[in-house]
Amino acid sequence: MTRTIWSRIALAVILIWTLLPIYWFLKISLLTPDEIARFPPPLYPLEPQPAAYFNIFGFDYELSNGITRRASGQANQIIRGLQNSVIVSIIVTVLTLAVVAPLAYVFARLDFAHKNKLLFAILLAVALPPVSTLIPFYSMYVQLGLNGTILGLVIVTLTITIPFVTWMLIGYFRNLPQVERLARIDGFSRMGTFVYVMLPMSRSGLAVAAVIAFLFAWNEYTYALILVNGTTANTLPTAISGFLFQHPEPQHMAAALALTILPPALVAFLLQRHIGEMNLVEPVR
Amino acid sequence: MASIHLKNLKKTFGQHVAVADLTLDVAEGQFVVLLGPSGCGKTTTLNCIAGLEAPTSGRVLFDDTDVTGLPPHARNIAMVFQSALLYPHLNARANIEMSLRHSGMTADQVKSRVAGVVSMLRVDHLLDKRPSALSGGERQRVALAKAIVREPSVFLMDEPFSALDAALRNSLRAELVHLQKTLNVTTIFVTHDQVEAMTMGDVIVVMNNANVEQVGSPDEIYNNPQTKFVAGFIGSPPMNFFEGAFKSENDRLTFHTGDMALSVPDALRAKLDGSIEALTSVGIRPQHIRIVDAGTDGGINMEVYAVEHLGKETVIILQSEAGDAYRVLTDPGFKAAVGERVALAPDLAHAHVF
After folding, report:
1. Between the N and C ends of chain A, which has fewer C-beta atoms within 10 Å?
2. pLDDT higher than threshold 90 for residue A11
3. Which residues of chain B does A204 touch, with a Cβ-Cβ cutoff of 8 Å?
4. Which chain B residues have a beta carbon less than 8 Å from that of A201?
5. Lowest mean pLDDT among A5-9, B275-279, B334-338
6. Can you give the pTM of this predicted structure?
7. Domain boundaries in chain A?
8. What top-level class would CATH report for the domain A76-277?
């Protein structure tokens, strides 16, 4: 009994810890500037109004009392950042899955020469902090003309997502039952086994891998800050962090933040069934 | 239906010899059990027959066709794996249909084939369930259906019942034998469970350490074991062994074990043709030993170590002074207390010598 009480208290603490900051800026995004300036700050929006969400996309919004809230000056940066973030994240997710699914499968289920050394080489890439490769990447990108391009950002993000997701999926593939022998008896070739048996069988593992890759790409900040910030290839996180120097209105800032957490939240929500299913000890039951 | 012939089959993994030199002929429609302890090479042999492993040397023939180089699917075999392996992401129907996916049959043909097998194995109500929603026995039936639907010429089974409880094993055993006899498909069944082997096999192949120890019907294997390993491996409780030497004096043959001399009856003597010097152990099954009072003439003194009540009989486990364990089958009414000193009187007329 006491145990359930304590676990509930712990759960409550964790929930407040995670949700309170999110609630706070979502609240701010629905306030008017004079409400934000008030002290003590209101704990909830007294008259929630979506003006900020129109403003950050470059639209004026007329409040019920006739006052017009003007479009945000950063609207262009936000729209472009959103576009770039969506493009980069989707391309990275697709490419990551296309590379990682066969790669992780081969490492998890087949034997070949120098397997452990090659695996270690892949994992080494996960161990490197991004900052350590930043300057080499930057000087290389300048020479190749890749800085300030979406292509450059996609390539550099893949260097993070591929090793990490491979490492994650190897564990998943290892724990799948030994259906390869069954597939061989049924007449599948090696490739056929992978395409027609293993891939459909590991749907939940691949879905989780996709979420991880998407979130990595969406949240990627370090490389974007150096390689694309201030160019037309700028992404949403770096665009928003840039506002700090442009004195934006707080409710616009909050609305832009809400925009950045929306897609990951949606993806995680839609795939939560698979995340729950992805039990690493016994992946498919 | 096909007969299977293994010619000098050999399989090594690096330095490790899994199957040494196996030659075996399996007649059409026979149920052959490969029996042996784990690591004896029985599963490797099965995999070579299936085509999942390529033998290092030797040949595999189905009837007169050399299939050594053929992939599994081209051999027209069906295999049931340990704990009834199925595709976990497909329901039972899709699992069964997978067997026919590369058969070139039309959808209608597949449908009627599946329907026939499904009603034969009474799995109709399970078709829409995934393997995880099936019980052990149901999975086993679906796995059998998946195997049978191909109408293979050979069935290969790799310890399919090993993960099931005893009661289920019993009923599936009978069902499988019945099915095999009805379909008359040559079957090779791998197990380490001697009860399974004895109850199901037409022929048992006892393997140990990559070699075949003996091939024979269950009766032959039990009543006439050719090697000490077979004698000790088959039978429950296991056979008792007495180590010692035969001595022939004045036309009287005796077996000396410890400080005892047991006189050899004519029934055993008749079996001992030729040299007796090479023979060092006598094996006697638990039912051919009596327990008598300590100090009785011709008895070997021992202490009662444990008593196991099996209902229709009781197993008394005795310990010799040297610490060896001996098992004796007695009537259920037999009273013995742990630690009691008794003597053991083997009936050498039923002995096996090695």
Report:
1. N
2. yes
3. none
4. 87-89
5. B275-279
6. 0.79
7. 2-69, 76-277
8. mainly alpha
Residue of chain A nearest B130, judged by CA positions: A285
Q: What is the arrangement of strands in the sheet containing B57-62, beginning at the earlier edge strand?
A: B16-26, B4-13, B57-62, B65-66
Does residue B42 register a pLDDT over 90?
yes
Residue B78 with chain A: CB contacts under 8 Å: 185
CB atoms A184 and B77 under 8 Å: no
Contact (CB<8Å) A200/B77: no
Q: Please, which residues 52-71 of chain B have a Cβ atom closer than 8 Å to chain A?
A: 52, 71
Closest chain B C-alpha to A185 CA, distance in angstroms: 5
What is the reported pLDDT for B297?
Answer: 77
Q: How confident is the model at residue B45 (pLDDT cuts 50, 70, 90)?
A: very high
Residue A281 reports pLDDT greater than 80: no
**Model confidence pLDDT, tens digit, residues A184-195:** 999 999 999 999
Residue B73 to residue A285, Cβ atoms within 8 A = no
| CATH at B186 | 3.40.50.300
Q: Is the pLDDT of residue A261 over 80?
A: yes
Which residue of B52, B73, B144, B190 to mutate against A (max A Cβ within 10 Å)? B73
Q: At what angle do helices A115-127 and A75-109 cross, to 10 degrees?
A: 160
* Candidates B72, B86, B89; nearest CB to A185: B72
Q: How much is the pLDDT for A282?
A: 47
Query: Which of B177, B205, B233 is the last residue before a domain boundary?
Result: B233
Total tally of structural domains belonging to chain B = 2
Beta carbon pairs, A and B, within 8 Å: 52
CA distance A208 to chain B (A): 17
Query: How many percent of chain A have pLDDT more than 70?
Result: 96
Q: Which two tokens stand for residue A271?
A: 């795939």
ipTM of this predicted structure: 0.79
Say what percent of chain B tops pLDDT 70: 99
Same domain, B310 and B190: no
Domain's final residue, options B205, B233, B261: B233
Tell me if B81 and A187 make a contact (CB, 8 A cut-off).
no
- B345 versus A275: which is more confidently predicted? B345
- Supply the pLDDT for residue A133: 86
**pLDDT at residue A285 is higher than 50:** no
Q: In angstroms, what separates the C-alpha of B312 from chain A's closest C-alpha?
A: 42
3-class SS letters over chain A = CHHHHHHHHHHHHHHHHHHHHHHHHHHHHCCCHHHHHCCCCCCCCCCCCCHHHHHCCCCCEECCCCCEECCCCCHHHHHHHHHHHHHHHHHHHHHHHHHHHHHHHHHHHCCCCCHHHHHHHHHHHHHCCHHHHHHHHHHHHHHHCCCCCHHHHHHHHHHHHHHHHHHHHHHHHHCCCCHHHHHHHCCCCHHHHHHHHHHHHCHHHHHHHHHHHHHHHHHCCHHHHHHCCCCCCCCHHHHHHHHHHCCCCHHHHHHHHHHHHHHHHHHHHHCHHHHHHCCCCCCCC
* Model confidence at B281: pLDDT above 50: yes
Q: What does the alpha-carbon distance between residue B160 and residue B142 come to, in Å, rounded to a whole number? A: 12
Task: Using CB atoms, pick whichever of B52, B78, B88 lies closest to residue A184.
Answer: B52
